[in-house]
């Protein structure tokens, strides 16, 4: 079956093509095409994984382009790492496909949605199966395209259109770095193949400066894609896309591609201590800053978005401190529990008539049992509570930061772990416990992340984002479809089944790398690779990390459940900090002022210069050499006509001369 | 027969034009069909030649040489032939022209003349890409000017008169410089051979310049001057900053079909001429000025992109994007590597398809909304979803999204510039990095334009606009499929180009 691994991305591609051409006749049935394709992909992925365990890496390539003596090939490869990734991607994609069947069924462009999902799954799987880093880049860009299309799925919403553009452009900055890194590597090694690059690094064929430079350039790509500081700003805005998209693309798979990239290029990074330090600190800083912003957001999806950025920071931190397995292990467990949390959020949003502000939720525990319980499991997992998946992978990251990093990195990681537990349970308590605050009125806070309960209670009435500026044809407003704002209730099996599957994985996924079973995942992933020994923590570290998670949960419980501490306690203590966090450190404003506006201003300046000087000279020369100009009534055109005539006549004379002098046709 | 195929290819459109002249101007549909058939026949002929093209041969194929006339020692031959550089451009020309003929079925004004000029133009363009005698090359080059002048001047927009004359004079000036330079090249070449076995043939001149019997005649200063003069002549056509200002005017005013041909093929004559004559006859001089060419390439990329960013008119945005994208060609050729040279040729072909598609889309949208002002468009995904979808695809192709042809050319050009030898281009890395910023700017102006035109709430006045007509699918699907085909499997093209590229690059390496 491993030889047929190419089938895995091809099934979703076929689904995409089917839906592209005949999707509008299928409408809702389009979902079944997508679900079937992903189910097949998943089955093949499982078979491939079993064959790869105990088997060997399989590679197949064909010639793609030849220039001079160089040939670039394309094909597919099944390694230990991508066999694991195939499972993660196909499984999450499959459950998201199933979930969307219900979530998107009101939308009359549901077939378009499923076609994009198919294209995304194809691209993401193509990325994973790539046998060389150029092919990875190609699919890397394609997943970026899909992200653009899906964030902008409700293109008629100006915010969605802006967010789609921002996502594409911001990641593009990283992509250019990545492309340059690859180009330089190619010129050094003559190949894009992983194996050739590893060998060149190992044999010292590339000088140290270039190794550091290319590693950092490639890392820039990861920074963009995995939303690391300072390029993270696109991911929270990307929440304008439908929630299943946020779960699949902006939590579990595409954003993890940056981590995966660092993973597949790991020998290059290991060869440069400078690059490793940059990677570690970028990850730590990102993890910390994103977590601080997650503390104050009130949009359920934005809390999760900042949480995703923060968790990706953890993975990057692990990779930067030689925790290869730790980083990739966390990638896998995070994919499951973060997809779970996003789909849980989607289930909630769907039930409360497409509102996303947690101040309008509450009390859903009794109304939505499956969603609540599964969400709680996800929250426990991400907080790192024993024995859930997140506990095992996060503990390894802490060990890696402690043993191979420094005190600062370890402290940052611990503080972030505390904040993670706190903001997740703030989210959980606000959403599921207490009284339901949704009422009958229409979404008063409407998806404005900068508005917090303690900050501004008197927000102007804003429209439900999905009712706004769109015609009924495009998307039946959910409010209408669901009738009369009856109180929230549990959703159908299409939505709860994925939650149950993911919750089970959030519980058991940690088992694949249990310490007392000899770290099986580690053995699988590092076999045949020279990546050094993997750091493991002592028992005290596990206890410490549990204590940190517990205290975070306890604080959230005291503030948001028990009310022992006022909810606005910290906001009142330090309003400046609170404001800074609400405004996301003003980074968007800073970028606009520093990069966007000056670029446009330079463009305007050049345009004026172009019209007045560059073209002005042309017109001036045209005018000044024309002595007959004044005799023409039409100043400008008159002269030009003269010139035109002269020019044509000149041409004719030249040609005619040639013929007249000695011309004959041979 | 094989040799005559090229001659047939070049002159079939001219014969077709003559045929159309005999048809009464009222028979609009007959004229349209005939034009499509004639251009289609040229397309088929070019594909037959593509099929018969020997990928392993580095020299000229399908050659025909016949004495034409002579003036004293000046012997002019009808000498034509193709290699891996001209082969793809021939097919590009017939495809873009045929599709632009389909794209112009909506034209109702002076239909007969329109197609006559288009077919004459086709002969001129094909002639440029096959001519090996410099006089013949010049004649065909001139032959493209007049039809395009009329296409813009008669069927263009409000400022068509200004734009068409500016086009004619500006590029006519380029031709004049080219002609004088050709004469000078011939004279110096003749002098270098003591006036023995002189020739106006590019192939022969390249040999003479590489191996002169009297080397003192060809001093560095003279050869350098000749190369720079050639460079300016072709730079106007490509166009290269600061000789680009004719282009936005011409594009904005030109009718859709003419814009497609202008961006799709005519600009490529500049790049082709530079490689064929400049690099072909004077490779040492091309290498000498490699840094200058690379810097101009980067200026083109950045300057064009910055100007595209601030355009308010969608069509002039696409026009400036052409300037930016032609910088990639300069960057590629300057590197003197197989990757860079191939990237440049790829870019000529790829941009031909992509820019033609973009101009077609802008035209189709203008036809419906009667505006090209970006701020007045918006929400087109809702009112004309299929057109908007193709528009987005074209924009993505232009952005250089992998899977589409533009990516391959950019990749190769950057591999080239980063791999350029330090003797040739001392600051190649710096130049490459600055050029790469253009990739971000390109995404910025195109996505911003898409956000403002296809995305966003639908405007009231655009409710109920008709979406794509069946005839419009021909150019849309045709161009997009070609861009995808080359993008997904560039071997299709590299296979034909590679041998010639090795040959060109070896002239400086060896």
Q: State the end-to-end distance of chain A.
A: 66 Å
**How much of the sequence of chain A is in beta strands?**
under 5%
Mean pLDDT value of chain B = 92
Placed side by side, the strands forming the largest sheet of chain A appear as 1-2
> What does the radius of gyration of chain A come to?
29 Å
Q: Which series of helices and strands of chain A comes N to C?
A: HHEEHHHHHHHHHHHHHHHHHHHHHHHH
Poorly predicted runs of chain A are: 442-484, 626-638, 658-666
Major sheet size, sense and barrel closure of chain A: 2 strands, antiparallel
State the helicity of chain A in percent bands: 55-70%
Major pleated sheet of chain B:
2 strands, antiparallel
Total number of helices of chain A = 26
- Strand content of chain B is under 5%
Number of strands of chain B: 2
| SSE topology string of chain B | HHEEHHHHHHHHHHHHHHHHHH
The multimeric state of the shown protein is heterodimer
Largest interface, chains and sizes: A-B, 72 and 84 residues
Output the number of helix runs of chain B. Answer: 20
What structural category do the secondary elements of chain A indicate?
A: mainly alpha
């Amino acid at each position: 079956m491993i030889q047929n691994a190419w089938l895995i991305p091809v099934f979703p591609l076929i689904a995409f093509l089917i839906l592209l051409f005949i999707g509008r006749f299928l409408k809702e049935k389009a979902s079944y095409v997508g679900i079937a394709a992903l189910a097949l992909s998943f089955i093949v992925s499982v078979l491939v994984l079993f064959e790869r365990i105990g088997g060997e890496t399989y590679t197949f390539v064909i010639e793609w382009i030849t220039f001079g003596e160089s040939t670039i090939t394309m094909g597919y490869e099944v390694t230990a790492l991508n066999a694991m990734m195939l499972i993660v991607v196909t499984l999450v994609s499959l459950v998201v496909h199933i979930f969307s069947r219900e979530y998107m069924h009101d939308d009359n462009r549901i077939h378009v949605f499923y076609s994009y999902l198919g294209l995304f799954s194809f691209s993401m799987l193509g990325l994973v199966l790539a046998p060389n880093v150029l092919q990875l880049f190609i699919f890397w860009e394609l997943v970026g395209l899909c992200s653009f299309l899906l964030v902008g799925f409700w293109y008629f919403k100006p915010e969605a259109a802006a967010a789609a553009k921002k996502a594409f452009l911001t990641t593009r900055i990283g992509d250019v770095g990545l492309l340059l890194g690859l180009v330089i590597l190619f010129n050094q090694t003559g190949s894009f193949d992983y194996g050739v690059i590893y060998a060149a690094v190992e044999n010292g064929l590339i000088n140290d400066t270039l190794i550091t430079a290319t590693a950092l350039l490639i890392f820039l790509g990861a920074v963009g894609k995995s939303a690391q500081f300072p390029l993270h700003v696109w991911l929270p805005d990307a929440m304008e896309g439908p929630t299943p998209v946020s779960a699949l693309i902006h939590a579990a798979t595409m954003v993890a591609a940056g981590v995966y990239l660092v993973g597949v290029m790991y020998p290059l990074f290991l060869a440069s201590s400078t690059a490793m330090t940059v990677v570690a600190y970028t990850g730590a800083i990102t993890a910390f800053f994103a977590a601080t912003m997650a503390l104050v957001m009130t949009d359920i999806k934005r809390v999760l978005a900042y949480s995703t950025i923060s968790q990706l920071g953890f993975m990057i931190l692990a990779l930067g401190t030689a925790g290869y397995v730790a980083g990739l292990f966390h990638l896998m467990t995070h994919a499951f529990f973060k997809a779970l949390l996003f789909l849980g959020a989607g289930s909630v949003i769907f039930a409360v008539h497409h509102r996303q502000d947690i101040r309008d939720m509450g009390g859903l525990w009794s109304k939505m049992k499956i969603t609540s319980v599964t969400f709680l499991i996800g929250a426990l997992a991400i907080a790192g509570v024993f024995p859930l998946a997140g506990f095992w992978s996060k503990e390894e990251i802490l060990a890696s930061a402690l043993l191979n990093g420094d005190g600062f990195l370890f402290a940052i990681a611990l503080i972030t772990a505390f904040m993670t537990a706190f903001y997740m349970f703030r989210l959980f308590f606000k959403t599921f416990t207490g009284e339901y605050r949704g009422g009958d009125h229409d979404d008063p806070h409407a998806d404005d992340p900068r508005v917090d309960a303690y900050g501004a209670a008197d927000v102007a009435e804003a429209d439900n984002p999905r009712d706004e500026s769109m015609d009924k044809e495009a998307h039946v407003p959910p409010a209408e479809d669901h009738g009369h704002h009856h109180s929230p209730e549990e959703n159908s099996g299409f939505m709860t089944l994925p939650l149950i599957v993911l919750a089970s994985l959030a519980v058991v996924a940690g088992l694949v790398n249990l310490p007392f079973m000899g770290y099986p995942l580690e053995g699988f992933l590092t076999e045949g690779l020279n990546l050094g020994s993997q750091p493991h923590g002592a028992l005290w570290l596990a206890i410490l990390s549990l204590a940190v998670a517990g205290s975070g949960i306890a604080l959230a419980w005291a503030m948001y459940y028990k009310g022992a501490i006022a909810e606005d306690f910290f906001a009142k203590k330090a309003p400046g900090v609170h404001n800074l966090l609400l405004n996301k450190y003003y980074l968007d404003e800073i970028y606009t002022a520093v990069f966007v506006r000056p670029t446009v201003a330079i463009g305007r300046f050049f345009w004026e210069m172009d019209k007045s000087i560059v073209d002005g000279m042309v017109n001036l020369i045209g005018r000044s050499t024309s002595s007959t100009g004044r005799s023409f009534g039409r100043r400008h055109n008159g002269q030009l006509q003269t010139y035109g005539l002269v020019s044509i006549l000149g041409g004719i004379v030249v040609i005619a001369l040639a013929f007249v002098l000695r011309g004959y046709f041979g | 027969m094989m040799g005559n195929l090229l001659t047939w290819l070049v002159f079939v459109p001219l014969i077709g034009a003559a045929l159309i002249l005999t048809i009464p101007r009222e028979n609009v549909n007959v004229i349209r069909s005939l034009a499509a058939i004639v251009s289609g026949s040229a397309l088929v002929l070019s594909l037959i030649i593509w099929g018969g093209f020997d990928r392993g041969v580095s020299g000229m194929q399908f050659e025909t040489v016949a004495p034409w006339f002579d003036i004293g020692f000046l012997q002019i031959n009808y000498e034509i032939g193709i290699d891996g550089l001209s082969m793809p451009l021939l097919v590009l020309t017939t495809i873009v022209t045929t599709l632009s003929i389909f794209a112009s079925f909506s034209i109702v004004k002076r239909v007969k003349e329109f197609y006559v000029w288009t077919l004459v133009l086709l002969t001129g363009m094909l002639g440029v890409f096959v001519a090996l005698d410099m006089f013949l090359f010049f004649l065909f080059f001139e032959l493209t000017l007049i039809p395009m002048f009329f296409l813009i001047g008669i069927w263009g927009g409000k400022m068509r008169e200004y734009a068409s004359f500016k086009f004619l004079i500006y590029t006519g000036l380029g031709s004049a410089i080219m002609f004088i330079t050709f004469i000078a090249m011939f004279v110096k070449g003749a002098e270098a051979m003591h006036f023995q076995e002189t020739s106006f043939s590019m192939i022969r001149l390249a040999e003479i310049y590489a191996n002169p019997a009297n080397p003192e005649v060809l001093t560095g200063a003279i050869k350098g001057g000749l190369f720079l003069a050639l460079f300016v002549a072709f730079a106007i056509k490509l166009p290269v900053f600061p000789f680009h200002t004719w282009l936005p005017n011409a594009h904005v005013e030109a009718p859709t079909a003419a814009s497609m041909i202008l961006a799709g093929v005519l600009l490529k004559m500049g790049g082709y001429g530079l490689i064929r004559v400049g690099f072909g006859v004077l490779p040492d001089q091309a290498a000498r000025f490699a840094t200058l060419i690379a810097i101009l390439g980067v200026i083109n990329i950045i300057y064009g992109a910055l100007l595209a960013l601030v355009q308010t008119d969608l069509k002039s945005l696409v026009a400036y994007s052409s300037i930016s994208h032609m910088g990639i060609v300069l960057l590629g050729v300057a590197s003197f590597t197989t990757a860079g040279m191939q990237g440049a040729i790829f870019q000529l072909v790829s941009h031909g398809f992509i820019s033609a598609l973009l101009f077609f889309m802008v035209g189709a949208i203008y036809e419906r909304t009667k505006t090209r002002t970006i701020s007045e468009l918006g929400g087109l995904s809702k009112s004309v979803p299929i057109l908007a979808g193709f528009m987005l695809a074209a924009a993505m192709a232009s952005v250089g999204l992998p899977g589409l042809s533009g990516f391959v050319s950019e990749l190769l050009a950057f591999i080239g510039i980063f791999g350029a030898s330090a003797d040739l281009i001392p600051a190649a890395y710096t130049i490459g990095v600055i050029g790469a910023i253009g990739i971000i700017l390109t995404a910025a102006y195109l996505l911003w334009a898409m956000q403002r035109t296809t995305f966003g709430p639908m405007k009231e006045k655009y409710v109920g606009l008709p979406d794509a007509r069946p005839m419009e699918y021909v150019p849309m699907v045709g161009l997009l499929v070609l861009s995808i085909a080359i993008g997904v499997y560039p071997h299709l093209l590299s296979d034909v180009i590679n041998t010639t590229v090795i040959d060109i690059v070896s002239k400086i390496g060896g």
